[in-house]
């Protein structure tokens, strides 16, 4: 519908025409247009998230699977399925996507609510009701005279002042 088309337009910064080369397990679609300028011929279209407004946080370059990474970055011309068949490894693990964006270590898996409330909520932040207030002096003077006349410091025995007689 309209929301899908609107979010798709927000995700894609350039209108492109090309041929679908393949898809991966994450739902990414890989396209190629050989008539385009060099290094502009291949691109990926990520699946459009639904039910969210901040779609900028929902797709990232780390979503490209290892099978398609070499093809996307012009390292070779083998598409993902062909590369996966040719270079299979018995210790292959499932790809983990964008660990820093979702922050699963901070979410409670049962409720999907933050485990720690007010993560990085310093005083004065717009969502923190506590005002910032005065933290301290704006600066600390290097020289704090006890009287109006400066006194000499005794560095020989590390006393506060030097008494010359």
Folded structure, characterized:
The protein is of the alpha+beta class and 165 residues long. It has a domain at 2-94. It is elongated and about 90 Å long. Helices cover 17% and strands 8% of the residues. The chain contains four helices and three strands, in the order αβββααα.
Low-confidence spans: none
Strand order, main sheet: write it out: 1-2-3
Total number of helical segments?
4
Counting helices, strands and paired strands, the structural category is: alpha+beta
Any idea what the radius of gyration is?
30 Å
Topology:
Layout: H1 2-11, E1 19-23, E2 29-32, E3 42-45, H2 66-72, H3 80-86, H4 99-102
Antiparallel strand pairs: 1-2, 2-3
Helix pairs in contact: 2-3
Protein name: NADH dehydrogenase [ubiquinone] 1 alpha subcomplex subunit 12
Membrane topology: Peripheral membrane protein
InterPro entries: NDUFA12
